[in-house]
Write a structure and sequence with these properties.
- α3 crosses α4.
- It is built from eight helices and 15 strands.
- The relative contact order is 0.13.
- With 329 residues, the protein is α/β, with parallel strands linked by helices.
- It has two domains: 140 residues, Alpha-Beta Plaits, CATH 3.30.70; 170 residues, Vaccinia Virus protein VP39 (Rossmann fold, 3-Layer(aba) Sandwich).
- The chain has an eight-stranded mixed beta sheet. It has a seven-stranded mixed beta sheet with strand order 11-10-9-12-13-15-14, with helices on both faces.
- The structure holds S-adenosylmethionine (SAM).
- GO terms for molecular function: methyltransferase activity.
- This is Ribosomal RNA methyltransferase FtsJ domain-containing protein.
- Pfam families: FtsJ.
């Protein structure tokens, strides 16, 4: 008989519509996992040898959550009972064409690395799956990798949610000492989220910015003084930005340009050369087809050449045909 920490199957929770990309990614990674059972937003795999908690360390970008599968139940109570003694139980469900995390009350405290977490996934009437995972750095602390954060009405775009969701997922800490340069910043959802966190931003985009962020604008980069929260709009395409436009003190590169991953990475490399103090990069990669995730090894190699050591590619609950690419020194 198998120990509870060894299972025959594991399951992945993914954004409905990206199951195919997830399977292709797993295949490309050469993990030896074979497709077993699949529903919208829920894909199970089996392998020649049992899965253990270590199997879940595989960095599968299209999985918002990976769990050892403890099997299927007809009721929620039975599914919770299958988890046995776990300190935390997350609930997830396929509802409204989305794989949603359960958020009954305020966001739970962030788990510590190593904490065991049970997940009960409701796929439809009478179909509940129980799963187990171990919290680790760069894993979402939230049920089904879905923060449930609701966008402020002040935001001029949904990009606000992508920044907030990404920061929560990866546990990023931005401080007033940071200066972010965001390429593709209009109309300003990400900029607003950063300014609200007290982080100054240089935004690069030929397009117009919303009034809500222009209220913090400084006309010249030199006016962006340390210790203040300011926004400087560099109204030109990314390729025309010079070292002088960036000035001193830039610590983060962000991109939300609707350009190919290759163009985004090329600009990331150029900006890192112009601003050697960049310690992190957070990019939304816009894919024409989610299957482009199979090209991730090439993107990682490019980032390693730039000197980044910790690299994560991750689908977020708020994404459609997009992925968040995080790189840190
Ligand atoms: C999805 S929108 C960005 C949303 C924005 N981040 C926000 O928070 O509201 C994409 C933006 O990328 C900009 N863009 C596309 N190519 C660009 C380039 N080469 N340089 C700078 N911006 C670019 C477009 O003008 C557009 O405003």
């Amino acid at each position: 008989m198998m120990k509870r920490s060894e299972t025959e199957f594991l399951f992945a929770l993914t954004n409905p519509g990206t199951e195919k990309a997830l399977k292709l990614e797993v295949e490309t990674m050469g993990l030896g996992w074979r497709l077993s059972y699949q529903r919208r937003g829920f894909v199970t795999f089996k392998a020649d040898t049992p899965f253990t908690l270590d199997s879940l360390d595989a960095e599968v970008a299209c999985a918002r959550r990976l769990c050892l599968s403890l099997g299927k139940s007809a009721t929620r109570e039975e599914a919770v009972a299958r988890l046995g003694e776990v300190p935390v139980v997350h609930h997830a469900r396929f509802h409204d064409r989305k794989m949603q995390g359960g958020h009954d009350g305020p966001a739970p405290a962030r788990p510590k690395p190593g904490d065991l977490i049970g997940t009960v996934v409701e796929l439809g009437e009478g179909e509940f799956w129980s799963g187990l995972h171990r919290h680790a750095p760069f894993l979402s602390p939230d049920p089904a990798g879905d923060s449930g954060i609701v966008m402020t009405e002040r935001s001029p775009s949904r990009a606000w949610l992508k920044l907030e969701e990404g920061a929560r997922f990866f546990d990023l800490d931005f401080t007033a000492k940071d200066v972010v340069v965001e390429v593709g910043c209009a109309p300003g959802g990400v900029v607003l989220a950063l300014l609200d966190r007290g982080v100054p931003v240089i935004g690069v985009d030929p397009a117009k910015m919303a009034d809500v962020v222009m209220a913090s604008a400084v006309a010249n980069r030199e006016e962006g003084l340390p210790g203040r929260t300011w926004f400087h709009h560099c109204r030109k395409p990314a390729a025309l930005v010079s070292k002088r436009d960036l000035g001193q003190g830039v610590t983060w590169f962000m991109s939300d340009m609707n350009q190919s991953p290759e163009v985004v990475l090329k600009e990331c490399a150029r900006f890192c050369k112009m601003a050697p103090g960049i310690r992190g990069a957070l990019m939304t990669l816009k894919l024409t087809d989610p299957a482009q995730v199979a090209e991730k090894a090439g993107w990682f190699a490019t980032l390693r050449e730039m000197g980044f050591r910790k690299i994560r590619l991750q689908q977020l609950a708020v994404h459609h045909k997009e992925l968040a690419l995080l790189a840190m020194r």
